[in-house]
Amino acid sequence: MNKLEALKFFVTAAETLNFRETAVKLAISPSVVTRTISELENQLGEPLFKRNTRSILLTSFGELFLPRAKRLLEDSETLFQTPKDNNDMKGIVRITLFRFPGHEQVLYKFLTALNPYPELFIDWRLDMLKLDTVQHRIDIGIRIEREPNPNFIIKPIAMVKHALLASPDLVEKLGAPIDFEDLRQRYPFSGLLNPETGKVFEFMLDGVNTFIPRHLEFFTTDSQAEIQAALAGKAVIQSSNLACKEFLKNGRLVEVLPELKLETWQLYLYRPYQTLIPKRIKKTFDILEDILLEHFK
Q1: What pLDDT does 85 receive?
Q2: What is the three-state SS of 83-101?
Q3: 192 burial class (0-12, 13-18, 19+ CB within 10 angstroms)?
């Protein structure tokens, strides 16, 4: 016995109080109605109808059971509605990103653009590490990497050049480094900690070679805190033209040994490949892409 179908037979029979008329409305034979109602009564252990040869009436139990059966059928209809039947811009969208300069303005423009969709909910997660799309149920992400994951749908936003940066005061205090080894030996560096391992991320010269500074005098898990350490003359940092654009422009930070060619990485917007993509994900992805391209142009 299909229980939902049996409830539908019962509710229709309760409205018509006639099994033959119920069968006509449901386009089935009267014997199927009779058999299904009997099976439902056996399942419940209570009669739903009082019957005679000419009419049927609900029992006391049937009268109490009827509103519950109607609610369950209504809930089942709502549960299986498709977005086209309902609101296709309704639900939650989870977004992960790192803390980049101006991310607050990006968020403001993004949320403003979503004002026409009041039933769309945004989960905006600032995280230094890329969150797992399955474990954390991430729909959209913004990241900087050497090579974007080919298993994602990628929208390139900007190229990000890495550099070694320090305050002019620190350079004047210690004297300009003669070469890279002189910089590594004499200058204090900041170490950006990996929150998962508690260890400092590698210092990269290029895509292959790494180096270890002799003096690490500041540690943090926040790249923005590193910039403050550099501005205060505390340390050399390995950062980017994106993160430090404002301070490079006004001279509060300078590139140390600019002849060094550090890596250029890609800032990109991504979402996982999925066979079925809800419209709300596609729409928010496109809106966010336009805002990011405008922000970083």
Answers
A1: 45
A2: CCCCCCCCEEEEEEECCCC
A3: buried
- For the record, the structure tokens of 206 come out as 């290029």
Handedness of CA 30, 35, 36, 41 (dihedral sign): positive
E strands of 52-202, at which residues? 56-58, 91-97, 120-126, 140-145, 152-166, 188-192
pLDDT digits (tens, 9 = 90+) for 120-156: 999 999 887 666 666 668 899 999 888 887 788 899 9
What distance in Å separates the CA atoms of residue 218 and residue 30, rounded to the nearest whole number?
83
What average pLDDT score do residues 50-54 get? 78
What count of other Cβ atoms lies within 10 Å of the Cβ of residue 195? 11
The confidence score (pLDDT) of residue 281 equals 93
What is the rounded CA–CA span in Å between residue 14 and residue 2? 18
Tally of residues, the chain: 297
> Tokens representing 4?
């939902």
- State the chain's mean pLDDT as an integer: 89
List domains and CATH numbers for the chain. Answer: 3-79 (1.10.10.10), 91-147+269-296 (3.40.190.10), 160-265 (3.40.190.10)
Closest by CA position to 186, among listed 202, 175, 198, 197:
175
